[in-house]
Amino acid sequence: MKKFAILLDSTCDMSKELLERFDIDYVKMGVTFNDNTYPASLTWDDFTPEEFYNIMKSGVRVFTNQINEPEFIEVFNKILADGKDILYIACSSGLSGSVKAAQLAAEKLNAEGKGKVIAVDSLISGMGQGLLGILASELRAAGKTIDEVAATIEAEKLKYNQWGTVADLNYLKRAGRVTASSAFFGNLFGVKPIIISDTKGKNFAYKKVKGRKSSIDELIESVIRTSVDSENHIVAITHADAEADALKVKEGLIARGYKCKEFIISNLGPILGASCGPQTLIAYNYGTEVTICGE
Amino acid sequence: MRFILMDGMLYEQILRLGYKNLVLHFEQINGLNVFPVPDGDTGTNMKLTVGNGLKMCSQDKDIGKVADEVARGMLFGARGNSGVLTSQYFKGIADYLRGKKEVTVKQFANALVEGYHVAYSATITPTEGTILTVAREGIDNVIKKIKNNTSFEDLFKMVVNAMRISLDNTPNLLPVLKDAGVIDSGGKGLLTIFEGMLKFFTGEELEVEEEKDDTAHTTNFGGGLDYSAFNEDSVLDYGYCTEFLLQLLNSKIDISLFSIKTFINYLQRHGDSIVCFQTGTIVKVHIHTKKPYLVIRYAQRFGEFVGFKMENMALQHNEVMVKEAAKKQERKQYAIISIAQGDGIIETFKELGSDIVLNGGQTMNTSAAEMIDAFKVANADEIILLPNESNILMAAKQAAKLYKDSKVRVIETKTIPDGYNALSMIMGGSESAEEAYNAMIEAQEGFVSGFVTRSIRNTTLDGTKITKGEYITGVNRKIISSVASRKEAVLEFLRHAPDIEDREVLFIFYGQLVDESEVEEVTALINKEFPDIEVGFIAGKQDVYDYLLGLS
Questions:
Q1: Chain B residues close to A186, C-beta within 8 Å
Q2: pLDDT per position as a tens digit, A42-91
Q3: Average confidence score pLDDT of chain B
């Protein structure tokens, strides 16, 4: 059976260790600030997370750039030349145009007959997307074909739940990547929205809670409430310069007797970090299918 | 003259004197306010409530009919808790008088009993030492003395005396009154009404400068006009639609020399939308003017009126607006209506999702009728109402009960910070009425609201000694400190707030008298003393309260 590479992109928030451990690679998007563009590296090559979030806290605006079709063609060609097919699990179409660009590239390359490229819309981002990559990797290790893995990812993707809380709504507002009523961004003090990835793969502020402490509790409750077969699945908690809070989520779950296969705590990568801002905290779990739609 | 029967005409006349007496004494009644803050005052509220009752009644011999109209006017025009209780009292009287054309002294006494029964039942927890006690003791303590030959004058004399004694006793029943050294303001208001009513029988005249012609009868203008659209706070934006037929008179001028052009020139200087023409010796005029007296005075130089009609265009305008708003908007599933004062606060509430924000609250308690107007404009199946002031809560519930075209629910927000807190938790968008309602109810748990304002008198309240001119701090409406420095007063709020260790956010609405630099200084002081609390502030631009505070 022909080998295939599993590809994610900069929004997947997978650490270097995780990428190596599961043999996953990723396509780099870009971040621009202070008139410089850097590849959105998950290994933090050009700056550390602290430096990045300090820059954001100082008020400097950070822009994100998606991957375009020529870039995909270049990346895909290299892998195809190695004799591998490609399964690309892309950042949600609701958040980025990357998957569309990838699908166009895939069409072209598939027509050329150099190999098979499948681009799947994850309808989520962050470690939700990362968990899908891990699932694909485990299925591949178990001997499944690229088509079987792609089909499973399609079938399972909406079962990966996202529960996010941000400290400052302004980053989300500026990035324009949250579905919420216009009243939402009004003068709200101490009110934190809980942000999920809805059925259209968009970030939807579906609930409000008061204060950081309640937000953390809400994340814990939500994971417990929606988990299915938790012992066999990973719970991922990502944070933007808020490790203590990420640990609170983990400890809170353990304290309530929650059992899972593994807790993964990692940093928010620069793409998500730029959109959500410092102090962002997101928990991901496998479980009941997402049914809420923000529209 | 000895009155032993009362009909509708007499009832209206004595009530009018009761009202006039309130007009003469309302400021004195306001001064009895226990709370040393110039907020919604009992005297003003009762005067306006009773006044609306008189506005709405006709001159009719049928006492049952008149009493009902009076009660209805008061129910709709009720302002403040005292106004609501007064309206309920007169409703009780109307309930007894219904179906009767004229009544004896004994029957009227029974009506007064029914009055206080209904007033008591209107409150969830009736408190003694208030208007309720005065209403009750005023009749209960004298009803046995009524004989077959007791006249109305005798009755009112007895009732007034009994009310006076009851009123003097209120400090013994309600400790806050004793501490403040005052008698109950609502009780005093009721006594004032009855003292006025008594004056009818004793022949005393009451000279009162009417603020405006507030005893006009609705029947003269035909139905449909919404009088509450133009009230004590209104500004004459549109003026009067004035139409008349002027008969030119030889006794006044040489009609052959009358110049319609000159006449029109004058009109044009004082109004617009002018239609003016002369047919024979009659001049027909239609004009929109804010100063009708100038037009009238001018016209009367040339003749006298054979027909005259004038209407406040705010009423017409409002009518039109309400109809248009209703037409324009498709019936909504639900609407949120809140009451606030201060331009910044009103703006914020609108941004947060309040479909309508009524201007009112602390300084002028909104009436039930004003809320009902808003319900109409909202045009929704369900309405959620946030009164944001403890003294409007009763009127809000009354309005909700009176209005039949929508399901109206009241969120019991007692302060503006309560209202802000509730609104900040709604999602908007596709959220249902039920979800919004629940979010607002949930939001109130544990929330602490407070204020800082200048005390208008020396007093002791809630165990705190208050000095006139100092800045008093309230925590959940309980006064906990009186200090000379306004900035210090804000810190006192945090020092006395419950569960301060669990608190994360303080927000501040700062009022008209506070500038932003002071708020920034206060924020710095708070950050020093309470580093774990995030502070946010908005220019509320409100009156009365220099700082409105919310802690969650």
A1: 348, 351-352
A2: 988 899 988 999 999 888 889 898 899 999 999 999 999 999 999 999 99
A3: 88
Please state the separation of Cα B47 from the chain's center in Å: 9
Neighbours of A21 (CB within 10 A): 12
By the 10 Å C-beta count (0-12 exposed, 13-18 middle, 19+ buried), B203 is classed as exposed
| B441/A contact by beta carbon, under 8 A | no
Q: Which residue has the higher pLDDT, B391 or B197?
A: B197
Which residues have C-beta within 8 Å of that of residue B52, sequence separation ≥ 6?
Answer: B73, B74, B76, B77, B78, B228, B367, B369
Q: Are strands A281-286 and A30-33 parallel, antiparallel or unpaired?
A: unpaired
- Work out the minimum CA distance from A182 to partner chain B, whole angstroms: 8
pLDDT in tens, B478-506: 999 999 999 999 999 999 999 999 888 89
Q: How far is B446 from chain A (nearest CA, A)?
A: 11
Q: Please give the torsion angle defined by the CA atoms of residues A217, A220, A221 and A225, in that order, rounded to the nearest 10 degrees.
A: 170
Q: Which residues of B touch A181 (CB under 8 A)?
A: 353, 427-429
Q: Which of B424, B439, B504 sits opposite A188 (nearest CB)?
A: B424
CA distance A13 to chain B (A): 29
B225 touches chain A (CB under 8 A): no
Strands in A134-233 per DSSP E: 160-165, 178-179, 191-197, 203-210
Is residue A295 scored above 80 in pLDDT?
no
DSSP B24-42: HHHHHHHTT-SSSS--S-H
CB A161 within 8 A of CB A220: no
**Quick one: pLDDT band at residue B317, thresholds 50, 70, 90?**
low
The predicted-structure confidence for B419-457, as pLDDT tens digits, reads as follows 999 999 888 777 889 999 999 999 899 999 999 999 988
CA B281 from centroid of its chain's CA atoms: 48
CB contact (8 A) between residue B353 and residue A181: yes
Put simply, whether B393 touches A (Cβ < 8 Å) is no
Angle between helices B292-299 and B260-270 (to 10 degrees): 160
Q: Please, are residues B513 and B467 in contact by the beta-carbon 8 Å criterion?
A: no
pTM of the model: 0.73
**Could you report the per-residue pLDDT of A97-130, keeping only the tens digit for each?**
999 999 999 999 999 988 999 999 999 999 999 9
Contact criterion met (CB < 8 Å) for A189 and B534: yes
Residue type, A91: C
Contact A290, A196 (CB under 8 A): yes
Distance CA B236, CA B161 (A): 43
Q: Which two tokens stand for residue B513?
A: 């008298």
What residues form DSSP beta bridges with B312? B240
Task: Report H helices in B307-415.
Answer: 313-328, 343-352, 368-378, 393-402
Alpha carbons B88 and B84: distance in angstroms, whole number = 6
- Locate the DSSP E strands across B149-251: 240-248
DSSP 8-state code for residue B279: E
pLDDT tens for A4-34 read 999 999 999 999 999 999 999 999 999 999 8
pLDDT digits (tens, 9 = 90+) for A91-106: 999 999 999 999 999 9
Residue B241 has pLDDT above 90, yes or no: no
DSSP-assigned beta bridge partners for residue B149? none
* pLDDT for residue B213: 37
